[in-house]
Amino acid sequence: MRLLFAAVILLTGCTGTPNSVQPVSPFELESYLGEWHEIARLDHRFERGLSEVTAHYSMRNDGGVRVLNRGYHQSRDEWREAEGRAYFAGDNTTGKLKVSFFGPFFASYNIAKLEPDYSMALVVGHNLNYAWILARSPNPSADDCLRYQQKAAAIGVDTGALIWLSDCLASANNE
């Protein structure tokens, strides 16, 4: 089975932070652990065609984080999974991690915005061509989705190119 996030290979050595992004601080890893639903993302080959995408974060024995990404590929009628590992890329009170799904190759995981109750997050990679809006619920409020879309735009993400897996903004536009 092809790995969900095989493109991480292309991100070798890409563990920086975009100039417009200040990773969140303070950050508590324990509060971030658990299941997140992908609400929106920029298109990349490693996720193309996937819906119902989730990421589950749990602790590893070595102090790192186990990352299990899962998504449904409707046209192939199959679930795809990729397991990786993440570690802090600096101090452990800042939402800046490095993640790997393939051997020694790591990519940036910068948390650019996070709700105080850890219910929603905006994550970007080493540049703004990699962006995800995540939430604990698969259907966050329209107001929350709009705030996260606006934050993404403010830091330079091409929000017109976002693929929305939730219809939260559609309901906002119909109100």
Automatic annotation (TrEMBL):
The keyword Lipoprotein applies. Residues 28-165 form the Lipocalin/cytosolic fatty-acid binding domain. Gene3D superfamilies: 2.40.128.20. The keyword Membrane applies. Keywords: Cell outer membrane, Lipid-binding, Lipoprotein, Membrane. InterPro entries: Calycin, Lipocalin_ApoD, Lipocalin_bac, Lipocalin_Blc-like_dom, Lipocln_cytosolic_FA-bd_dom. Its main location: membrane. It is found in: Cell outer membrane. Involved in the storage or transport of lipids necessary for membrane maintenance under stressful conditions. Displays a binding preference for lysophospholipids. Homodimer. Belongs to the calycin superfamily. Lipocalin family. This is Outer membrane lipoprotein Blc.
